[in-house]
Amino acid sequence: xxxxxxxxxxxxxFFEKARQKARRAIEKGILVRPDTxxxxxxxxxxxxxxxxxIQGHHPNxxxxxxxxxxxxxxxxxxxxxxxxxxxVFFGSExxxxxxxxxxxxxxxxxxxxxxxxxxxxxxxxxxxxxTTLEIVxxxxxxxxx
Length: 145
Ligand SMILES: [Zn+2]
Description:
- This protein is mostly helical.
- The chain has 2 domains: 1-84, no CATH class; 98-145.
- Helix content is 41%, strand content 6%.
- The chain has helices spanning 3-28, 72-78, 101-110, 118-125, 129-136; strands at 54-57, 68-71.
- A two-stranded antiparallel sheet has the order 1-2.
- Bound molecules: zinc ion.
- Zinc ion binds at residues 37, 39-40, 42, 70-71, 73-74.
């Protein structure tokens, strides 16, 4: 059993809990996604694939509501590429790799029929409604928990 695997296994619940809490806070309006980056202060242009250009980053997963809002460049600086297993792609730079495993998990968390449906979700991630449905219904990306 690889060291890498067991480390991820241990840390995963913290990631999930922090993400869930942050998501609820966003839904309730406690956390608001700004349009400027907290680190460099720039206002990044919207991404070609329609994804939010400011991303939520948890500097400390023990503080789920302590979210840093960063542009893609700064987010990449604070989050080493490859952390969590697979390669990390950024939509604007790798148009062929539209989704990451994190995207898929986020989509499944965000999906709420009639409230935040497949059409809206798909637009946000730059993929079709059909693909979105397959992902949230776990017919695609089935290797992602
Ligand atoms: Zn930035």
